[in-house]
Each structure stands twice: as C-alpha cells, then as structure tokens.
C-alpha cells in the first residue's frame, strides 16, 4: 500500500462572499477564464456577483500572482469557497476548496462503484480532511494529501496520478529500488486503466469532518451505485482536528 503525505497548507485570509452559482454554471462559464471583477462596497464588504481577487505568491516559483475566490452552492449539499490561482510566470495552477458555513457534526463516508463514463464525470468535492481509497489497486491517500479539490472524479484521479508522478522520489542507491519502482509504475498504470474504464473499481471517500461530496447523478432518486454513510466521529478523530476543546452544540 502506498501512502502519500503532504503537510497541510496554511489558510490564507478569507472574507465572506455572497455569491451563488451551481457547479454546472461555473463550468459553463469557464472557471479560470472568468473576468476579474473586484467589488467592495463602502463598508469593505464584498458585493454579490463579483469575483474577489487578492495577491499571493506562487507556491511553485514564489512570483507574485493572483488568487480568485468564489463562493458557490453545491446543490443538495452546502456552500463552499473555491480559490483558484494561476501563475503567469511559471504556469502553476491550483484549485483549492474550503468549506463554508456550519461544521458538520458527523463524519461522512462515500463508496462508489465506478463502472461508466458517467461515473468518471461525476462532480466531486474532496476536502482537505478527506481520505481517498481505491482498494483494488492498493491506493490510499491520507488526510491532507492533495488538499481540497472541486473537480470531476476523472479530474481527481488524473491529479492524483500527476501528484504521485511528480512528488514521489526514489533514493538512488536504494537496494530495493527496482522492486519499489515496479510497484509504483504499476500503480500509475492502474490509475490510467481506471480512467479508461479498463479496470472497474471502488472509490471510497472518508471525511471525518463531513465536508466531502460526490454528485448523485440520479438525484432526486437514490443512487444505485453509491452508498453514503454518516458516522459519529471518534474521540481520537475529534482530538486530531482539535474539536474536543471546541463547543459545537448550537451551531448545527
Ligand atoms: Zn509560479
């Protein structure tokens, strides 16, 4: 089993933005091609129908670049904030998702049988606290790996593949290198096969914070390919996310 760990990123300053779009509208509008409209009223509040832009530094090359922030409402789920950064200098792109609004009181585990093109095209919101598991190919991404993402299932799998390919180094002189490399290469090939539907698999998203979502393409009917379970967080999970010291009652 391959475990990918990344340090959690620090939160940039976030302002509340009252701006509603569905994910479909957002895609139709071409998310990254949207006009840079910055709007604030006299009280420094953000006005609706605007995209809020702020200056950051590229996390790849450190050049100054711009991050655009949108608040969107995912139908049948909740509001999330999407922050998109594109570096004009080196071409680095990122698409981070932060959940917005009240914290979910329960964890959420989503299990999908991936069988078709339609399944690959499902919208997915994977928050930074969500793990991703594909048992058939021994893939397990821990909390924090990949950060938050709002994309399609295929888009997420391709990002996982790219991240693995870019970031998992093999030490030269390691005597176990040929064996490790062949396990790693077959994992990448298996991800390709899943994206081409040559390998059918089970995708398990487990988010103790309850902030992750996979589109039900049969809504409002039950989804025959997907099981969504909610569960009580364990004391250890609450401890991990610093919730045991927080009062959560009354914020439901
Ligand atoms: Zn850059």
TrEMBL record:
The keyword Ribosomal protein does not apply. InterPro entries: Znf_ZPR1, ZPR1, ZPR1_A/B_dom, ZPR1_jr_dom, ZPR1_Znf1/2. Keywords: Metal-binding, Zinc, Zinc-finger. GO terms for cellular component: nucleus. GO terms for molecular function: zinc ion binding. Gene3D superfamilies: ZPR1, A/B domain, ZPR1, zinc finger domain. Residues 56-216 form the Zinc finger ZPR1-type domain. It comes from the Eukaryota. It holds the Pfam family Zn_ribbon_ZPR1. Belongs to the ZPR1 family. This is Zf-ZPR1-domain-containing protein. It comes from Paramicrosporidium saccamoebae. The lineage of its organism: Eukaryota, Fungi, Fungi incertae sedis, Cryptomycota, Cryptomycota incertae sedis.
